[in-house]
Amino acid sequence: MYKQKKSKPKIRRLSPSNYTKNTKFNSKFQIFAQGIKQLSWSWQACLPLACLIVLGWGYVAVAQTPAAGPTTAELKVALDTLWVAIAAFLVFFMNAGFCMLETGFCRQKNAVNVLAKNLIVFALATVAFWAIGFALMFGNGNDFIGLSGFFLSGADNSPATGDAYQGVFKALNWAGVPLAAKFLFQLVFAGTAATIVSGAVAERIKFVDFLIFSLLLVGIAYPITGHWIWGAGWLAKSGFWDFAGCTVVHSVGGWAALMGAAFLGPRIGKYQDKQVVALPGHNMSIATLGCLILWLGWFGFNPGSVMAADPSAITHIALTTNMAGAVGGIAATATAWLYLGKPDLSMIINGILAGLVGITASCAYVTISSSFVIGLIAGVLVVFAVTFFDKIGIDDPVGATSVHLVCGIWGTLAVGLWSVGPGVYSWYGEGLGPAKGLFAGGGFGQLFTQLIGVVSVGGMTVLLSTIFWLVLKATLGIRVSREEELEGLDIGEHGMEAYSGFVKETGSGTFAEGYGTGITKDKY
Q1: 3-class SS of residue 511
Q2: Burial class (CB in 10 A: 0-12, 13-18, 19+), 369
Q3: HSE of 195 in the Cβ direction (CA atoms, 13 Å)?
Q4: For 291-323, what is each residue's pLDDT tens digit?
Q5: Which residues of 224-244 are buried (b: 16+ CB within 10 A; e: fewer)?
């Protein structure tokens, strides 16, 4: 019988390379499968669910339309706001500089009092400026005072600018940042004006009177004159320019300080046998630290007043500011060395601050070489101003009137002398700054306008400050008793001392009685 042959199965031969790949794959698969088998049943049940979740996420990511990024305009607002906030923080930090400077320039028995005043004054300024000051200064009103926006309320569509702005603070419609940023930056300026007064009235004023006066200054006097200039008031319409506050901040604080020192009278022991007696500060180290902090803060004070992240404007203003401060310190050193016989450290410190104050009004409108001259003259002026006020009986322990009032006036007038006029700098267009100054070929017009601003703001500040001080003097009395002043305001006003437990020097080669108790008998 015919037997059918069985066909032999074909054997597929693998190449050596394919055989190796399949072997590795099978080995890895077996390891993976063995690993899964070792998992508990609950974990094994979760694996399919995890795969579904991953697949679902992938589908959503592919199907979703990418979100649109911020526009150029939105990025500009964000950068401008960030810069304004940083500048405001720098100016706020100047409070620490004032604390250190004034405390170092005063005697140790009044250290706590000076520190307490400088600390609480910004807290008071915050409330007063929020409630009433900001509205009086920038609120819509007339040429003399703002009448809307109290408690930071009312319509506002910031950061819209120009004609697009619709709100109750039209005086600030040029700044393309949110209203909160505008308020924060202006608040730290208002606090600075009140702090200036603290040093001039130090070591003999009642604590409560200083607090009340600070509220009145920040809430009423400062914003009224500020409205004339920065609030689109009558001085602004007359062509008066003050970029960062020579008059608005420093002169106003200086006039108020001058009146306070005059009504208080000199400290006990300042004048003996018709001679001026020096009452040196107790810690020049922290006074120097305070000067450096203030110098740093000025890089927020002046460049921050651009209220926009304009790199050209910010850097130019920072350079003019720094140059004036540096030259002011050098000029004061040389002047004190020649005039007083020694390079007095307190004069060096005040010379730096004088240069910084002197350039504040014109920092955006002048060249760097002009800032050199402005700082030079300010450094010389402050040395003679300190000795002048001493001779006429105005006792200012820290030289606040010399630095902020005298050099604030000088800086305001400097705008009318060295302003380059429109068309020179990119940020300085027609209608955005003063006309050419006298030494730039512009004649006396701008200088005369600046002089009108100095006189009018000074007159109003003196008037209001005089009313405030006289009312306080008639009701509460503004000066501490003789006993409290001799013992020190730290004990009389606060019941504590800054250096309790330390040996305290009372005279050359002698130390206080009661070492360890912190009680001293100062010599006058």
Answers
A1: strand
A2: exposed
A3: 28
A4: 999 999 999 999 999 999 999 999 999 999 999
A5: bbbbbbbbbbebbeeebbbbb
